[in-house]
Automatic annotation (TrEMBL):
Lineage: Bacteria, Bacillati, Bacillota, Erysipelotrichia, Erysipelotrichales
Name the record gives this protein: Nitroreductase
Keyword line: Oxidoreductase
Molecular function in Gene Ontology: oxidoreductase activity
Similarity comment: family membership: Belongs to the nitroreductase family.
InterPro entries: Nitroreductase-like, TM1586_NiRdase
Signal peptide: none
Coiled-coil regions listed: none
CDD domains per record: Nitro_FMN_reductase
């Protein structure tokens, strides 16, 4: 399936156009796009020391939820977020998982972060003895493009101890486009001495922190060195 948008969509446009999609069409992902995704996943695994895996044409993980919940339809493909157990695992999976999600959006695909409404025992993936599966990401061609989530006022989600540089506001704007658990935006950002700290709370707080950090870095054009 050809999608001409994928050649022109930059990362900010991908953030703006990407919304959670739970109902998918029964279309296979073309091999050329699978190759791009696998290459991105390989890079993320190398950089993040993770074991993220792309699973194709495997509907079992969502099948039992179709009738009981009615939330997902035709989920044939998903990305499994796996890594070695340690204190930073969830944040790294959030960071690199969102990087893959936005790459998928640039390719014309739709996605949804999934924390609970799937059968973990039926997920087909490799998990080594010292590894843990945290969550998965549904991926494919959506029945629709989803809807934007409601935002809290941006000014209520940050404080600047010193001056407020342009790059910080650009980072915050990108962060406002980030998905969070139940779209609750339970985070607060502080800037002091050109260093940024994100405090998160609630369900999947550490995963949310990783997602938010990736968005902020892309919007602000800053590296990981900015974080407290």
């Amino acid at each position: 399936m050809k999608n001409e948008r994928r050649d022109y969509m930059d990362i900010i446009q991908a953030m703006q156009e990407r919304h959670s999609v739970r109902r998918f069409r029964s279309h296979d992902i073309p091999q050329e796009l699978v190759d791009v995704l696998q290459n991105e996943i390989y890079k993320c695994n190398q950089e993040g020391q993770l074991h993220i895996q792309l699973i194709l044409q495997e509907p079992g993980a969502f099948r039992q939820f179709f009738v009981h919940y009615g939330r997902f339809k035709n989920v044939q493909n998903y990305i499994v977020l796996v890594g070695r157990r340690n204190d930073s695992l969830e944040e790294r999976l959030g960071y690199y998982g969102e990087r893959i999600v936005l790459k998928a959006q640039q390719l014309g695909l739709n996605t949804c972060w999934v924390g609970a409404t799937y059968s973990s025992k039926k997920v087909v993936c490799q998990i080594d003895h010292d590894e843990q599966m945290i969550c998965i990401i549904a991926i494919g061609y959506g029945d629709n493009q989803g809807k934007p989530h409601k935002n809290k006022p941006m000014e209520s989600l940050y404080q600047c101890i010193d001056e407020k540089p342009d790059w910080f506001l650009l980072g915050m704007e990108a962060m406002m486009l980030a998905p969070t658990a139940m779209n609750q935006q339970k985070f607060f950002v502080t800037l002091k001495n050109n260093k940024v700290e994100i405090m998160t709370q609630g369900s999947y707080a550490n995963i949310n922190r990783g997602i938010l950090k990736y968005h902020f870095e892309q919007g602000a054009h800053k590296t990981k060195e900015i974080w407290l």
